[in-house]
Amino acid sequence: MQHRLAEVPLFQGLDLPALDYLSQRLHGRQYRSGEDLFGQGDQGDGLYLIDQGVVRVYRVTPAGKEITLALRGVGEFVGDMSLIDGLPRSASACAQGGDCQCSFLHKEDLHQLLRQQPEAALTMLKVLSRRLREAGDNLEELAFSTIQQRLASLLLRLCRVEGQKEGQETLLPGWVSYQSLSTMLGTARECVNRVAVSLVECGALTRRGRRLVVPNVEILEAIHLGQAG
């Protein structure tokens, strides 16, 4: 357990006694596909380390529209904002595309560790700062990117989190469909269908049976950055 914790970016640099302290205070939790780990507005009581599956972080607008903020995979974590401000959750998180297994750490246990090893807070602040920068990039993407760029960005995230590399190609998991993509983007299925067709036509996306395949992530990256010709 200590070895696995040492690979989590938030805890890199902690010594063995600190990792042992954390491992004894983790609580295993399981979630069915589509089930929320926590909801927007809930009291932030701790951190979730992802042991298995994918977690989607999303917000719901006043109009009831879901907007995906991030996808997190094995070895990553969600619920980190609760460690900083103690305010209610600013977003929801759910198991995406399959069952998910997490290890939960109460924020009081982490705070106790930081009181004993205050130098560990510097590492955590760096990681959380990167998360804030990422959130800013996501907001910029929502505000200024085309739907084609947003779909390309989402496909790139899926490649990173759960893609299966086969040479230059990346095979996406079976749960990724035009319907699930439209849900994650918060846009109409018909719109995603049209944009996906354009990605197929330019060689950025294809199918293998019922599975979606990214032939070359560099093509998607160029589309995401608005550099495709």
Ordered list of secondary-structure elements with their pairings:
Elements: H1 2-6, H2 16-23, E1 27-31, E2 36-38, E3 46-52, E4 55-60, E5 66-72, E6 77-78, E7 92-95, E8 100-106, H3 107-116, H4 120-144, H5 147-162, E9 164-166, E10 169-171, H6 178-185, H7 189-201, E11 206-208, E12 211-214, H8 217-224
Antiparallel strand pairs: 1-8, 2-7, 3-6, 3-8, 4-5, 4-7, 9-10, 10-12, 11-12
Overall SS class: alpha+beta
State the end-to-end CA separation: 48 Å
Number of helices: 8
Over the alpha carbons, how many angstroms does the gyration radius reach? 19 Å
> Low-confidence segments, ≥5 residues, pLDDT <50?
none
- The percent range for helix content is 40-55%
Average pLDDT taken over every residue = 88
Strand order of the largest sheet: 1-8-3-6
How many beta strands in the DSSP annotation?
12
The fraction of residues in strands falls at 15-25%
Count of domains: 2
Shape, per Cα inertia axes: globular
Topology pattern, helix = H, strand = E: HHEEEEEEEEHHHEEHHEEH
